[in-house]
Amino acid sequence: MPADCPPVMVVKFGGSSVATPTLLARVASRIRSFCQDGWRVAAVVSAMGRTTDKLLELADTVSPHGRDEREVDQLLATGEIQSVALLALALRAQGVMARSLTAGQCGICAAGRHGRALITSFDAQSVRQTLDEGAVAVVAGFQALDSRGDVMTLGRGGSDLTAIALAAALDARVCSIYTDVGGLYSADPKIVPDAHKIPQMDVSLCCELSHAGSRVLQARCVELAARLNVPVYLASSFDETEGSWIMKDVNERSGIAALAHETGWAEAVFSRTEKTWNLLSSLDDQGASPLDFAVTETRLTVWFKQGDKAVDDAWRRWNLTPLAVTRGLVSLSLIGSGIGNHPETARALTQLLIDQKTPPRRLTTSGNRLTCLVATDRIDELLNAVHRRFLCE
């Protein structure tokens, strides 16, 4: 790239940011301002609003007894194609040259399972050509092509993956992801009013935060940003307030950085037999990730996500019937540098949960994460109590 060539910025706008024609025009205006500031812009866009959910509902309506995943991916990809074309039109209406590009036109290749494919390569030649011609490249997120040319989708939040991969392919200075949240917070601000914004976070901690249930960024997106060394700026689509930076080698202060939660966990107890070991092997083979498991002389207990198809398939494959199943569990996770090396934090969290009459059913730790599973219908109250104890001091 010539030394005097303007730098490249990759921006990504989620579905809530482009949900209506008015919001599309606002996004176009923001992109125009980036261009006026001297950036060459590649914009990755999700489907508008609830388009993906509505398309899935349509698929269920016409195919109520099971869906072919290839055809579902073909259907879902139309949501992003609609968005990129409309945003390109909105940019042109504001005097900005723009070209919409699908996954096939961008050279995004993937492999794996339909609905959760993994990006394997990103040629991006057509994106570079569009930028070199002085136009904004508007790229469809969430989708890629397999080796046969079939459309594959990247899973929920897959447009974030597209943006990170594109930023790496273009050697962009930054990948800016705009959402309705506007940054990383110490807890979900919609539930915990005292939650505060985190100006910067090391990508390793952000990976833990995403895996623990924070829906601001897809976990695979953060892992990809770490692997490709792409700095990520997370900000609001709807105002100009400062966002949060996610990058390598941030000097994290010691202590707890954030609280995350995730609903929809379950606990299954099995008699310990040879078949139960086959269950764990099957889950490994399918890439499923139970939260944890425990073994006694007579029992195997597994904690897993409700509705996990890999778990259901493994049960059927080995004809296993659990002795007991408890559904509706919630995980609460404290994220912090080296938190797993501080047993006093685990003791304090356990005592707080006991005081709140929600003793943990399981507690797990890693280097930067402490997670408890609880059975509660008072999740909002519990999150606020944990946040006050550990993140407001």
TrEMBL record:
Enzyme Commission number(s): 2.7.2.4
Highest taxon of source: Bacteria
Protein's pathway: Amino-acid biosynthesis; L-lysine biosynthesis via DAP pathway; (S)-tetrahydrodipicolinate from L-aspartate: step 1/4; Amino-acid biosynthesis; L-methionine biosynthesis via de novo pathway; L-homoserine from L-aspartate: step 1/3; Amino-acid biosynthesis; L-threonine biosynthesis; L-threonine from L-aspartate: step 1/5
Positions that bind substrate: T52, E80
Catalysis: reaction(s): L-aspartate + ATP = 4-phospho-L-aspartate + ADP
One GO-annotated biological process of the protein: lysine biosynthetic process via diaminopimelate
This protein's record includes keyword Signal: no
Pfam families to which the protein is assigned, alphabetical: AA_kinase
Domain Aspartate/glutamate/uridylate kinase: 8-235
UniProt keyword terms in alphabetical order: Amino-acid biosynthesis, ATP-binding, Kinase, Lysine biosynthesis, Nucleotide-binding, Transferase
One of the record's GO molecular function terms: ATP binding
Keyword DNA-binding: no
Name of this chain's protein: Aspartokinase
Organism: Jonquetella anthropi DSM 22815
